[in-house]
Hints:
Blueprint: H1 2-23, E1 28-32, E2 35-39, H2 41-92, H3 96-109, H4 114-126, H5 130-143, H6 148-161, H7 165-178, H8 183-196, H9 199-209, H10 217-233, H11 238-247, H12 256-268, H13 272-285, H14 289-295, H15 303-313, H16 321-333, H17 337-350, H18 354-366, H19 370-384
Antiparallel strand pairs: 1-2
Helix pairs in contact: 2-3, 3-4, 4-5, 5-6, 6-7, 6-8, 7-8, 8-9, 9-10, 10-12, 12-13, 13-14, 14-16, 15-16, 16-17, 17-18, 18-19
Amino acid sequence: xxxxxxxxxxxxxxxxxxHFLLADPGSVLIEFQxxxxxxxxxxxxxxxxxxxxxxxxxxxxxxxxRRLGEAAGRIRSARSGQKMxxxxxxxxxxxxxxxxxxxxRAARTSDSPLFNYLQAARAAHLQxxxxxxxxxxxxxxxxxPEAANAVLLTQAEFQLDRNQYEQALATLRxxxxxxKNHVHALALMGQLYxxxxxxxxxxxxxxxxxxxxxxKPATIEMWTVRVHKEALDGAADVEVLEFTWxxxxxxxxxxxxxxxxxxxxxxxxxxHDRAEKELASSLKSNWCGPLVRLFGLxxxxxxxxxxxxxxxxxxxxxxxxxxxxxxxxxxxxxxxWGKARSYLExxxxxxxxxxxxxxxxxxxxxxxxxxAAADAYRDGLGMVAAKPLPAxxxxxxx
Length: 398
């Protein structure tokens, strides 16, 4: 529409000008370096128009290669986009080999091949082709060096998924050298140290992990508890144990897992009387099964007093199988076989466990009931075995 209006206007002006020029063509005299050129106005106008047309044509010829290149680039980009889309569809439909091939081809003609290479690497990873996966990642880094972090993170995720922990650790450490405290890399590092059970390394990065918004607070707390637990379990003497316990935040000192490890550390160091006293104090405010069972394992100096304390708790916790098991063990230490048997049989009737059967079998063997002891041991082993254990036939003496 706009072009048509311009043509009409130009024709109108040309016709109007031609009317006057034909009536009186006029004359133009041009002097250039001592030479005179004389021509009519229509001839001058024709020369000017010819020059303008020539300039327009020359310009078009000059920019034509660039325009053709741009057009070809748009065509290649469109085809590359189509290949990428088809490749993504193939991968989503489970045709991984075909999808990987199409994504790789699309990357070669794409203006931004990073995404294609990363998706091709994913397709190779899903096929278990780790060498091809790493080659696609290498090409991604080579084509887009500024995306090094994205490539390394993708590689680390693939390695973690394949349980290639040592390789993943090397990849993440390389990334940390360039981008310290990278949020996602730090989260992956925490996961990796937890899987490797490298509690010392996990403990070192815990302060940074607590500031990481990608990790749930519950996960951070679980990792923190595990780090402190391993430190308590590994304490070589009471001094190290005390130092480790003091370093634990006050908010975690009521955690049952950490309390159990701490009291076991006291027992390991031979401080049974102290462990018995502190356990009793903890149970007054925080009654829980693990600590109750642990109370029955403490070898306090005054075993009679310890048993009386446990039996005193039975008045308010008489249906607690953990307390009954602890009382039975204390009876065994006081050589009260009949009472111990009664407690153990009550525990087994309420909540049979392998450790209850083990204590019961040992008691029966001590009391000379070999067959009943064998049955108790077999029942206990049957609770932890994949299949029930058959009864051991008696060997008759000839």
